[in-house]
Design brief:
By secondary structure, this protein is an alpha/beta fold. It contains 9 helices and 23 strands. Strands 7-22-23-21-20-17-18-19 form an 8-stranded mixed sheet, sandwiched between helices. The structure holds S-adenosylmethionine (SAM).
Length: about 425
C-alpha cells in the first residue's frame, strides 16, 4: 500500500522517521526529519505501519549534505543528513516525550550539553569481512559496508585504520574467514585492538607475526582472552584523574563530553557525601564525581579489580568495591555503610524494580542517575515517584552526535 503526501514529524532512536497518517502512526526507513514524502507500507501492525520512503515531495528545511561518503549505506549514523541544531532539538523531544509518556512529567525545555560533532569516539567496533576488510553493518541490515574512514572516531583511530586493516587482511589471507570483529580503543597516544576470532588455529600465526606490534593487541576466542602484544588495558585521563580501563571494561566513548557530564553530576550531588555507586564499572564515574568515600558495586570482577587500582592511583582513603549483582543490594548494607547518596549508571535496560524499592527503604535523600536511554530512565523515574521521590533536575549530554542516542543525568530526591 502506498500513502502519499505525509510529513515527517520526528525520528526514533533507531533512526526511523515518524509520521501520522489518517489511520495510524507510520515508522519509516530512509526518510528525513521535516520532509514531505510518499511511503510504501511493508508491514501493517495493530497500532502502526512499518514503511519505507518511496519519493520526496518537499525537501526538509533542516537538510544538509552528510560529510561522510558512507552515510546513506552505513548503519553507524542515522541523522547526519540534518543540521546539528536540529539534531539537538530532536534529542530534546526524545527526552521530553519519554518523561511525559512514562512519568507524566511535562517540561518545557531541557538543556542539552553540546560538544564537537565529529572526531569524538575513543572506541569503534567494526566487522571484518571474508577478505579481512573493515566494515560496519548496513542500515537496518546484517549486510556489511566496507569503510576506509569513520568521521566519528578520534584522529588517532582514523590515522591508523589503514595500518590496522593491513593486519586483518594479512591474517585473513593466511586463514580465510577466521576473524569476526575488531574493537579499536584509543587514549591520547595509544591504541588497543581487541580482535574476536572464529578459529583458534590462527593464534600461533598471530603470536609469531604480531608479538612486537606497536599496537596493544588482544584476541577474544569465545570467552577466553589472549594477549598478543603490549597491554590488555589503556590509561585514560579524566578531570585530572587517571583511570585504568581493561579491554572488556565499560568506558564512556566520548572523553570531552564525559567530563561535562561528570561535572554536572558532581554539581547535582553536592559536597561531602559518602556515595554508593551502583553499576560502578572501573569506578570512573564515582571517583570523578566524588573525590573520596565511595562504595562501588559491579558485576564484572575484572572491572572491580581496576576500580580498586583506580582508587589507589587517585589517592582515595575511604573506598570499598564489591563484585556483585547490583540487583541484590539490600537496605541493611546501605545503612551499615552510612551512605549519604547514590550514583547509578545502569545498562540501557535500566533498573530492576526491586533496587528502587530497596533504595526507598533506606530513605536516602539524593540519587544521581546517569542513563543512556530516555525510555528506561523515564520508567524508573516513575517508579521512584511511586516510592516517594521526585525528579529535581535533569540535563542531557550529546555524547553521540549524528545518532539519535543521548546521555542524561538526573537528580532524583526526597525530603
Ligand atoms: C553503563 S556502564 C557504567 C559503568 C560505570 N559507572 C562507568 O561510568 O564507567 C554499566 C555497568 O553495569 C555493569 N552491570 C551490568 N549488569 C549489572 C548487574 N546486574 N549488577 C552490577 N553491575 C552490572 C556493567 O558491567 C557495566 O560496567
Amino acid at each position: 500500500m502506498e500513502i502519499k503526501n505525509i510529513k515527517i514529524i520526528d525520528i526514533l532512536q533507531d533512526g526511523r522517521a515518524v509520521a501520522k497518517t489518517q489511520s495510524k502512526t507510520a515508522f519509516i526507513e530512509g526518510a528525513i526529519y521535516g520532509e514531505i514524502c510518499n511511503i510504501k507500507v511493508n508491514n501493517e501492525k495493530k497500532n502502526f505501519f512499518e514503511a519505507e520512503k518511496t519519493k520526496t515531495l518537499e525537501k526538509s528545511p533542516y537538510l544538509r549534505k552528510p560529510p561522510c561518503p558512507y552515510y546513506y549505506e552505513c548503519g553507524g549514523c542515522s541523522i547526519m543528513d540534518i543540521n546539528y541544531k536540529t539534531q539537538i532539538k530532536l534529542k530534546k523531544n526524545l527526552i521530553k516525550n519519554a518523561l511525559l509518556k512514562s512519568a507524566k512529567i511535562k517540561i518545557d525545555d531541557i538543556e542539552i550539553l553540546e560538544g564537537e560533532e565529529f572526531g569524538y569516539r575513543n572506541k569503534i567496533r567494526l566487522q571484518i569481512n571474508k577478505n579481512g576488510k573493515l566494515a560496519y553493518n548496513k542500515k537496518y541490515s546484517n549486510d556489511l559496508v566496507e569503510i576506509k574512514d569513520c568521521l566519528l572516531a578520534k584522529d588517532l583511530i582514523r590515522e591508523n585504520l589503514e595500518k590496522i586493516e593491513k593486519i586483518t587482511k594479512d591474517i585473513t589471507k593466511k586463514y580465510p574467514n577466521s576473524l569476526e570483529e575488531i574493537t579499536i580503543r584509543a587514549n591520547e597516544k595509544e591504541i588497543l585492538l581487541n580482535i574476536k576470532i572464529k578459529d583458534e588455529k590462527i593464534i600461533p600465526y598471530i603470536k609469531n607475526q604480531y608479538k612486537d606490534s606497536t599496537y596493544n593487541i588482544n584476541l577474544i576466542n569465545k570467552k577466553e582472552k589472549i594477549n598478543i602484544s603490549g597491554k590488555d588495558y589503556l590509561i585514560y585521563n579524566l578531570l585530572g584523574k587517571k583511570f585504568k580501563i581493561s579491554m572488556n571494561d565499560f568506558y564512556q566513548v566520548n572523553d570531552y563530553m564525559t567530563e561535562k557530564l561528570y561535572k554536572t553530576a558532581k554539581d547535582f550531588l553536592g559536597e561531602n557525601q559518602k556515595v554508593l555507586d551502583l553499576f560502578c564499572g572501573s569506578a570512573t564515574s564515582s571517583i570523578a564525581i566524588n573525590d573520596d568515600h565511595v562504595v562501588g558495586i559491579e558485576i564484572n570482577k575484572n572491572a572491580i579489580k581496576d576500580a580498586k587500582e583506580n582508587a589507589k592511583e587517585n589517592d582515595l582513603k575511604d573506598y570499598k568495591f564489591i563484585a556483585k549483582n547490583a540487583n541484590y543490594i539490600d537496605d541493611k548494607f546501605i545503612k551499615k555503610e552510612k551512605i549519604d547518596a547514590i550514583v547509578l549508571d545502569p545498562p540501557r535496560a535500566g533498573l530492576d524494580k526491586e533496587i528502587i524499592k530497596t533504595i526507598a527503604k533506606t530513605k536516602i535523600k539524593k540519587i544521581v542517575y546517569i542513563s543512556c536511554n530516555p525510555q528506561t530512565l523515564a520508567r524508573d523515574i516513575k517508579r521512584f515517584q511511586e516510592n516517594g521521590y521526585n525528579l529535581e533536575k535533569i540535563k542531557g549530554c550529546d555524547m553521540f552526535s549524528e545518532t539519535m542516542h543521548v546521555e542524561m543525568v538526573a537528580l532524583i530526591a526526597r525530603d
